[in-house]
Amino acid sequence: MPYTYLLFDLDGTLTDPKEGITKSVQHALKAFGIEEPDLDKLTVFIGPPLVPSFMEFYGLDHEQALEAVKVYRERFSTVGLYENRVLEGIPEMLARMKAKGKVLAVASSKPEVFVLKILEHFGLRDYFDEVVGALLDETRTAKKDVIEEALRRLHIEDRSEVLMIGDRKHDAEGARLCGLDSLGVYTGFAEEGELEEAGATFVCHSIEEMAERLI
Fold first, then answer.
1. Which residues contact 192 (CB under 8 A, 6 or more apart)?
2. Where would you tag: which of 88, 137, 151, 181 has the fewest CB atoms within 10 A of its CB?
3. Would you call 40 a catalytic residue per the annotation?
């Protein structure tokens, strides 16, 4: 793949955040009298922006969803942030990419302040030239807007040199809207066929396969 710039999603692509995110969603739902004991049902919150997810999956209106995100962050910002783990093989893959002269960036719908804390906590920050996420005021949450900000910060003019890598349909759709190719990776929480349906340019099913494709 002759790409100079590689934009990586975070959740499900570089790390497995299931425990921290689902328990924080569970915490937020309790504030609305909703008991959800099955954390597996809450993996739908991993990847996409939280406000529309609370509205879509639990019927909250927009104002309630904003309040749910506030409650979610009470737990996530102190505990859930670190209930996470780096996917096996990711540090080695990133090191190989840097050795090849690739420019690496993170483009995540998670608030940028949290993305930075996670990368620093797990020793991944130094691999990336730029780290872009959402803002805490619920702006720049759409993947398209996050990607555009990453392109701006990296001063990219030729978008054919850029590849977006992510594990959910939002990554592939956001890349397409920005005129980028994308690599969809089944390392996270996508349902089978989701990435192809979303128009991912390439698809792979493991960290090893992702590394080989990128190299």
1. 186
2. 137
3. no
Question: What type of residue sits at position 72?
Answer: Y
Alpha carbon distances (Å) from 156 to 21, 69, 142, 146, 165: 32, 33, 20, 14, 17
What SS3 state is found at 33?
Answer: coil
Lookup: tokens for 95 = 């090191």
Per-position b or e across 183-209, b if 16+ CB within 10 A of its CB: bbbbbbbbeeebbeebebbbbbeebeb
Which is catalytic among the residues 9, 16, 145, 171? 9
99: amino acid identity, one letter: A
Q: What is the pLDDT along the chain (215 residues), one digit of tens a residue?
A: 689 999 999 999 999 999 999 999 999 999 999 999 999 999 999 988 899 999 999 999 999 999 999 999 999 999 999 999 999 999 999 999 999 999 999 999 999 999 999 999 999 999 999 999 999 887 888 999 999 999 999 999 999 999 999 999 999 999 999 999 999 999 998 999 999 999 999 999 999 999 998 88
**0.90 surpassed by pTM:** yes
